[in-house]
UniProtKB/TrEMBL annotation:
Keyword tags: Membrane, Transmembrane, Transmembrane helix
Keyword Membrane tagged: yes
Organism: Hanstruepera neustonica
Protein name, as recorded: TspO protein
Upper classification of the organism: Bacteria, Pseudomonadati, Bacteroidota, Flavobacteriia, Flavobacteriales
CDD domains noted in UniProt: TSPO_MBR
Subcellular location: Membrane
Length: 154
């Protein structure tokens, strides 16, 4: 499969994950449950989340298209599926089920998976492409801190 076809495939999958996660959170950020939580002072405005996830998924899709062009293995596909499931399920766990601690565990595991991608797959021709993961990594660190704050102070 060509790089362009892989890119289109990953864009569809990753933006599909965002749509599915949004649907699973059941009006989460606008719910009275979330509004009443004691949130971190550094919690961004709501619109920042949409912009951030759009940039993240574009960068992640480009990274994955390149990675899967260079290395396509059962392990890599499995790792991607784990990332997908952790990413989508956090919305359901945190916003829909109100399981803050389980959400924190989930997002921590997701963060570890994305950092694993960054440090594990360091092929010579992937050096520049791995930096496309930086927005995802930074956002997950912020999101994990937000979840941790809610866990500790609620």
């Amino acid at each position: 499969m060509s790089f362009a076809k892989r890119l289109i495939l990953f864009l569809i999958i990753n933006f599909g994950a965002l749509a599915l996660g949004s649907w699973l959170m059941d009006n989460g950020p606008q719910s009275s449950w979330y509004e009443e939580l004691n949130k971190a002072p550094w919690t961004p405005a709501g619109w920042v989340f949409g912009v951030a996830w759009t940039v993240i998924m574009i960068c992640f899709s480009i990274y994955l298209a390149k990675l899967f062009s260079e290395l396509d293995s059962r392990f890599l596909r499995s790792l991607f599926i784990v990332q997908f499931l952790l990413n989508v399920s956090w919305n359901f766990i945190f916003f829909n089920q109100h399981c803050i601690g389980l959400g924190l565990l989930n997002i921590t595991l997701l963060t570890l998976v994305i950092f694993y991608f960054f440090f594990k797959f360091r092929m010579d021709d992937m050096k520049a492409f791995k930096y496309l993961l930086v927005p995802y990594m930074l956002w997950l660190l912020i999101a994990t801190s937000l979840n941790a704050y809610i866990f500790i102070y609620n």
